[in-house]
Amino acid sequence: MQLYKVCLAAGLLLPSFWAYAGWTDPVTPSRNDFGAIGLIQMPSARMAPDGDVSFNYTRIDPYIFGTVNLQPLPWLNASIRYVNITNRAYGPASLSGNQHYKDKGVDVKFRLWKEGYYTPDIALGLRDLGGTGLFSSEFINATKRVGPFDITLGMAWGYMGSAGDISNPLCHESDRFCTRSSVNNIDDTGNFSFSNFFSGKKAAIFGGIEYQTPWQPLTLKVELDGNNYQHEPKNNNQPQSSRINYGLNFRATPYMNLQLAYERGNTLSFGVTLHTNLTKDVVALKHDPAPEPLKTAAINPAETDWDKVAKELSNNAGLNPKSIYKSKHGLTVVGQQTKYRDRRKADERTAAIAYNATNERTRQFRVIEQNQGQDITETRISRERFKKIHDHDYDFNKRPELAYVGNTEPIQGKQVWHQSYKPLSFSLNPGLNQSIGGPDGFYLYQVILKGGAKLQLTNNFSLSGSISANMFNNFNKFKYDAPSKLPRVRTYIREYLTTSKFGVNDLQATWFGHPTTNLYTEVYGGYLEYMYGGIGGEMLYRPLGSRWAIGANVNAVKQRNFDERFGFRDYHTVTGHLNIYYQMPWDGITAELDIGRYLAKDKGATLTVSREFSNGFIMGAYATLTNVSSEDYGEGSFTKGVYISFPLDQITTTSTVERGSVGWTPLTRDGGQKLIRKYHLYDVTEQRGFNEVQARDY
């Protein structure tokens, strides 16, 4: 009967389609209550635009949903979700006070088939994957656009399919699909319950229509809900008068949507979604200095002011020069790029300054880019070719390459300028430590002010450290020390963050080496991070322009005292990993596999997969599996998380190579934990990567 009503509603709406035979505007995908692309409760097969990020809040009694939805790839959509169950307590009042129960989960949806003229989008999805499993579901569905209508039809198992109006067709293929278990043990949460996928004796059909009204900001929705709300988590069943839900979505601004719906035949819901897109520049306007105009008058090299040239290289080209060399037919600059992520822009600005500082006898400009005192790449620019490109004197069907990027060659010529010795530098930055979704309080935080200093004793040897001051902190509410059968290598976080107002965050000596063309090394020792001190080393083999790199690190460390001063606790260990990196040939994806020993002496591997968009934003996820069982690991079952790294020049009006990041880890546990190292050679040698070299191909 309910399916009949949806078909009847579709029949009433479809005649209006002929009034829009010339309709050209697509139906803009919107979010459902769970923050995913969909109808009202149910998902559609649609994907968000590539690189989309949204923040969703929905209130439908007794639930409050808070979701971050991500579109890291055109065919993959994922959500991180918290649910506040407002009529259930989190735990004993002595621990949680009057806090409501909080559930967290991860949803993913894969596009199996892209919509064509006759065929629909087809998607397969998993809800509450690797979470508590309270809302776990699986579905397969299809969505097709017909004029101003987006029509969805699908089948759901688990929570979304609890109406059970059909038998599970997979149950006839194997008895394994006939039984669906529930998560009863907290130590089982966070695991992938593969045995539950698409299982249970019953499933449900769901579907709906989203209608794009002639008023562009407004869409209307109607759906057949696959849930009957009689199997709600925490014995929290809800009355349902109808499986037909009605709703509307209003796009108030390009970055905000409002949702209103009438669900279960008796309940109103309200939601708001804020969204942005990582493929689009946040701050496109930059107040960088204009490139140096080329001089037309002949230059007498003897009159060149090399101090002025060095200043222009720093201020205009973003190249902090260490030394400048002049030969009969060439000019070589050795330095570090500190401003322009786009090395093509840096090359053009550097070439203009070098052109103005020399005459026509200087035929080639060389830039040896360093990082941490190590040669990373050498860029060669032809004077003649640069002038032709600058004057647009070339065949526009084939623009010549401005620069050649290769390994560094011996420097030729006489040193005409060298940076004065300035060994000491200082920094002052804010910092944030946080915990989300714990029983002590939904959001625990510590705001710190970190003052740093660096003493550069030689080109490749330095002493650096930082002192942190506790500015604001509510970690004193952190009472729940989750049970752990492992050495407490990270779960003493409350003690570290609350014992002292001031602490030595890190204090270490670091030596970098470059023994062969493609091999880089570092050795370090001291107070390496706020929880551990010791000694360690890393080596990395990274051929220039290669998609792959391989390295290893090993560290002997001891746990520091809680006051973050200079004392140590008894616990010590040796930790290290073999690191394998690969830049994949599609979509800017990079994979990193780390295999080795972790701080709690467990052994296993961490897989990190990230995607870098053209404007520098990076979206990534990681997971660690070790030889520790789910029971010994405790709640969460294994270490996992997601992060977004962003160039700071996306939120400022000046260019910079510096980056910031935000991340989410559902729980801090002791298994699968790494040492926090200050430097990573893969990051130090970033410009040797395949993608980075290819980005400079004109």
Automatic annotation (TrEMBL):
Q: Which domain of life is it from?
A: Bacteria
For this UniProt entry, which residues form the secretion signal?
1-21
One Pfam family in the UniProt entry: YjbH
Q: Which UniProt keywords apply?
A: Signal
**Which InterPro entries has this protein been placed in?**
YbjH
Q: What is this protein called?
A: Exopolysaccharide biosynthesis protein YbjH
Q: List the source organism.
A: Celerinatantimonas diazotrophica
